[in-house]
Amino acid sequence: MHRNLSQDISMGAVRDEVESVMRSLPEGSTLEDVQYGLYVVEKIKRGLADAEEGRTLTQEEVEKRFAKWLID
Predict the structure, then answer these.
(1) pTM to 2 decimals?
(2) Does residue 36 belong to any structural domain of this protein?
């Protein structure tokens, strides 16, 4: 089960993350762009945490799991 990373950080850290995403976006970006940027950052953090804790699959394991959807 995934832990909620957003619960593990302080409000100051959240503010810093939002500001970082906003600075990285081009002028004229929308609120939706900011939301998507934050979503991507959160997904990357979760992926890195999963990798650090050994919750990953090999290429072979993924191929076996998705074999029924893959077309040869």
Answers:
(1) 0.68
(2) yes
